[in-house]
Design goal:
Blueprint (H helix, E strand, L loop, with lengths): L6 E3 L6 E3 L10 H14 L1 E4 L6 H11 L15 E3 L34 E8 L7 E5 H6 L3 H8 L2 E4 L1 H8 L5 H9 L3 E4 L1 E3 L5 E3 L5 E4 L4 H15 L6 E3 L6 E5 L3 E5 L9 E7 L7
Parallel strand pairs: 2-3
Antiparallel strand pairs: 1-2, 3-13, 4-15, 5-13, 5-15, 6-12, 6-14, 7-8, 7-11, 9-10
Helix pairs in contact: 1-2
The protein binds fe (ii) ion (FE2).
Length: about 280
């Protein structure tokens, strides 16, 4: 028997609200399967005021795949605390990099595949700003003309930490620069042909340049693609209420947080589901 979720589409290109589910329902393996299928269809799923506790959040994510247990500065393993407040976690200010459109996992430390999905729950929200925005990179590919697809199909892009961080910190210290450059860069095809056969564009603030193309010319191509993919008419912007939970498919989306104050109380709890599919 398959479980059918009650979904309400949020925009034409991306996002659906899942209606009527409780945290108890999430203990059901068939619900987890239905959530995975809906993620593939909609990219972003919103559970308004689900009020899931951190333990249940991690438990649910284990039904979706392998959970990332990196140190998250939270008492529950598998929870990573997101805040700009340095008192709540070290290097919290580095989170400002997430104000740029990006995909997670394009510059892996050890060649691991990009994360499959991310779940975020709101503990406290910002007074102003702090929304999370999502842009479908499947839709971005689908929107290209036949001639554009032909052009981008064979392009490869070098992704670096420096490219993304320098957009947030345009005047880095030599120490900052050295740290960014210590992170391995990674070349990916611009077009990801997924195991499902669907195609998406792999881009974001971390996309430094197109390999083998004049640097400025390549950046102009990337900028144009990103601007079109993130046009306000095609994105979903989630305005958080305390207790909301959102999960997204990192393989087919770019995301960003809109800026909020460094002294804001905003606090999100994140759980990451690791991926196994390499970009090819
Ligand atoms: Fe992110």
């Amino acid at each position: 028997m398959t479980t059918t979720l009650n979904t309400k589409r949020l925009t034409d290109a991306v996002g659906a609200e899942i209606i009527g589910l409780t945290t108890d329902d999430l203990r059901d393996d068939q619900v987890a399967e239905a959530v995975l299928a809906a993620l593939e269809d909609y990219g972003v799923l919103v559970f308004r005021e689900l009020r899931i506790n951190p333990v249940d959040q991690v438990e649910f994510c284990t039904r979706l795949g392998e959970v990332d247990y990196e140190e998250g500065h939270h008492e529950v393993r598998g929870i990573y605390r997101i805040t700009l407040d340095n008192a709540k976690r070290p290097n919290a200010h580095l989170m400002k990099g997430t104000f740029q459109w990006h995909m997670d996992g394009c510059t892996p430390l050890h060649d691991e595949a990009p994360q499959k999905a991310t779940m975020l729950s709101a503990i406290a929200v910002a007074e102003t700003g702090g929304e999370t925005e999502f842009a479908s990179t499947y839709a971005a590919y689908d929107a290209l003309s036949e001639a554009e697809r032909k052009h981008v199909d064979s392009l490869r892009v070098l992704h670096t930490l420096e490219a993304s961080q320098s957009k947030t910190y345009p005047d880095p210290t030599p120490e900052q620069l050295a740290k960014w450059r210590a992170r391995p860069s990674k070349e990916h095809p611009l077009v990801w042909t997924h195991a499902t056969g669907r195609k998406s564009l792999v881009m974001g603030a971390h996309a430094d340049h197109i390999v083998g193309m004049d640097i400025d010319e390549g950046r102009a191509v990337l900028d144009d693609l990103i601007i079109r993919a993130t046009d306000p008419s095609v994105i979903y912007r989630h305005e958080w209420s305390v207790g909301d939970t959102v999960i997204w498919d990192n393989h087919g989306l770019m995301h960003r947080a809109t800026p909020y104050a460094s002294n804001s109380d905003r606090e999100m709890l994140r759980t990451t589901v690791l991926g196994s599919e390499q970009i090819r």
